[in-house]
Design a protein that fits this description.
single chain; 65% helix; 11 helices; mainly alpha; 186 residues
């Protein structure tokens, strides 16, 4: 959950490496890497009209319990809880990646769901924030499908994934440890 809280690149690119079962890096999969970077902003920022309108206090503000990222608490106090931007990003990536690698869709979507649930574990979002974040992501990704540049980026990433698969490269991460951690979730 703490790892999922950090959306900085290059580390964030590996969020779905185990679910895809391939390495994701700027050098090795530049089209996929750039697609993830660009859609982070597109999908994450889609939550802000609702966040700004509702300014819902976050769980840690109500229950006084710690978060996974105490260094971010001050910023989070001024950033509404509803809907979850992190969830929107994770679910948006899951939808995009499931489309690019349909043979891995079940695992990818499960990882995307866990990404959003990690925000509950970290005590920074309510369940309804997470559900709303998924809905925002679905709408944002659907909207992106009308964008020619997005569609071209999808095709480039799909071709890249196929090349990596043909080369037999797998995720360099400890995917067994990730799977064990994910099996403990809500």
């Amino acid at each position: 959950a703490t790892r999922d809280a950090h959306l900085g690149f290059p580390d964030a690119a590996n969020t779905f490496s185990c679910a895809l079962d391939l390495p994701i890096s700027e050098a090795g999969t530049p089209a996929l890497y750039m697609l993830l970077r660009r859609t982070l902003a597109d999908v994450g920022l889609a939550t802000y009209s609702a966040k700004n309108a509702y300014q819902r206090p976050r769980p840690f503000m109500a229950n006084g319990q710690p978060t996974c990222t105490p260094e971010e608490e001050e910023m989070l106090r001024n950033d509404g809880s509803y809907p979850s931007g992190h969830t929107s990003i994770g679910w948006g990536w899951a939808l995009i990646l499931a489309e690019l690698a349909p043979e891995r869709a079940e695992v990818i979507l499960d990882r995307g769901k866990a990404f959003g649930e990690s925000r509950i574990v970290c005590n920074v979002h309510w369940y309804s924030d997470v559900v709303a974040g998924r809905m925002v992501a679905a709408g944002a990704v659907a909207t992106l499908h009308a964008n020619k540049e997005f569609l071209a980026a999808m095709e480039a990433a799909r071709a890249e994934i196929n090349v990596v698969r043909e080369r037999g490269l797998a995720s360099p991460l400890d995917c067994a440890a990730e799977q064990e951690a994910l099996s403990l979730r809500l």
